[in-house]
Amino acid sequence: MAKKDRTADAAGEKDRKKWMARFQVRLAMQPGVDRAVVLQAVKEVTTHCADAGEHPRTAFGDPDAYAVQAAARLVPADRAARARRHDGVVDTLDSVLKRARDVTGL
């Protein structure tokens, strides 16, 4: 294998790893997503890309957009809604606590 081919292969592998890392982070940030969902989605992407010989970007597009799609497909709607409500409550409490600290000077 020529040096140029090895360099291109290494660059492609690095890009694939970056795509997968971004996909995993964005997926984990979606409401209701737990470790099992992330592992299932990563397995699906990895298997597809290995079988088809495709780069994840070619097969699935933007990692952020695909993370949203995968979460919508893999997380039950009621669990996602519950997580969104919980996140809203946590954000509200965080805001109240910040204001209280500002007022008290802590």
Question: How would you characterize the overall build of this protein?
Answer:
The chain is an all-alpha fold and 106 residues long. It has 5 helices and no strands. It has helices at residues 3-28, 35-52, 56-60, 63-74, 77-104. It is elongated, with a radius of gyration of 19 Å. The chain starts with a helix and ends with a helix. The mean pLDDT is 84.
Largest sheet: none
What is the helix content? over 70%
Number of strands: 0
Sketch the topology as an H/E string, one letter per element. Answer: HHHHH
Low-confidence stretches: none
Strand content: under 5%
Specify the number of helices: 5
N-to-C CA distance: 63 Å
Principal-axis shape equals elongated
Overall average residue pLDDT: 84
- How does the helix and strand content classify structurally? mainly alpha
Radius of gyration: 19 Å
Summarize the structure.
With 106 residues, this protein is mainly α.
Topology readout:
Layout: H1 3-28, H2 35-52, H3 56-60, H4 63-74, H5 77-104
Helix pairs in contact: 1-2, 1-4
Main features:
106 residues, mainly alpha, 5 helices, elongated
